[in-house]
Amino acid sequence: MARADDSERAPKRVAWVLMIGPGLLLAATGVGGGDLATGSIVGSLLGTTVLWAVLVGAFLKFVVTEGITRWQLATGETLLEGAVRRLGPAVVWVFLPYLLLWSFFVGSAQMSASGVALHAMFPIFSAATTGKIVFGMISGVAGVLLVLKGGYALFDKVMRVCIAIMFVTVVATAVLLWPGTGAVIQGLFIPRIPDVGTEGLTWTVALIGGVGGTLTVLCYGYWLREAGRTKQSDLRVCRIDLGTGYLMTAVFGISMVIVGSTITVEGGGAELLVDLSSQLEESIGAAGKWLFLVGTVGAVLSSLLGVWQCVPYLFADCWRLLRHRDAAGMPEEVDTRSMPYRSYLVLIALVPMIGLFWSFRDVQMLYTVTGALFFPVLALVLLIFNGRSSWVGSRFRNRPLTIVTLVAVLLFFTWLAFPGFLT
Question: Does domain 22-417 have CATH number 1.20.1740.10?
């Protein structure tokens, strides 16, 4: 049953900057090493012709996250809570094994990307693989200590600094390498896939699917609670917040494709960013190289920190829901000082260190594939849950455009996760 509509309404004039918060955290968490690698490789292979794919990917993720937000503001429940209360505790037993598997790959991917980026900036090891392993481990442990020490408040401040660094520096690098306004406008608004064999379609699809994170979109609901946005009247603010976050995600992705379109990107191992920065030095000088590297480090570290802070919410929520089979006596929200939250925070950094000994490209691929498995289920849940006025109220029910978009998400990510589907 939906909660009664709030009689309050958000003030007509709210400082725009005050509306931006959890959406930026979501954007920074969703932009990591995989986006850097994919964007630069796609730009090198296909040029600016496929910039439109970044916009499509960001829009699809916006619609999904906005649906999660509507559910939570309408019912007062996270989507996971709502699923358990309406479908039973079996939801947790199905979701939990997937969360554990995905957490391993996302943890490995985050530390691997951080290690690669830091080695590119500080090449003190003779072998890039060694630098990736050592710097990756250091990054993982440092992230745990930062989250444990400062909680959400410190996390929010540090993330804002990282976001500013990555956004300004990577966009500035793209401007320095600007391929021409006409080419960029055509790439953004005229959908085309270059005829370069199967790679054209494959990498375009990868670009759409990789924009804006995967399972981390569920974490937006927990950050809303941390920010105190729990009233139905907060929907407008949340939409502006999300829109700004995904706009930044799109601009970052577009910038990476532009950077890649001006150089030749080969391989996808631990040497990727080292080679990329070396080519940038030839094109725009040492200052340009360091500008790009600083932005890259800001991007991968903010993504790692975001995952470390938000993914334990999901495990702690599963733990809470299994312990309290009904609403009676259930804590209203996840406690970040609780043992389940802190234990999972430590485990997500330590256990996935095994993945640092694997290929950077393989780890990023496995992370992307496991993340894609979740989105068809999420789209289906939002179609059903937000499609019932008796659950969310008529004001928060899915509109026709949202339904069409969610169906597109369902079909696209099902095909991405299971290539034989629809063929």
Answer: yes
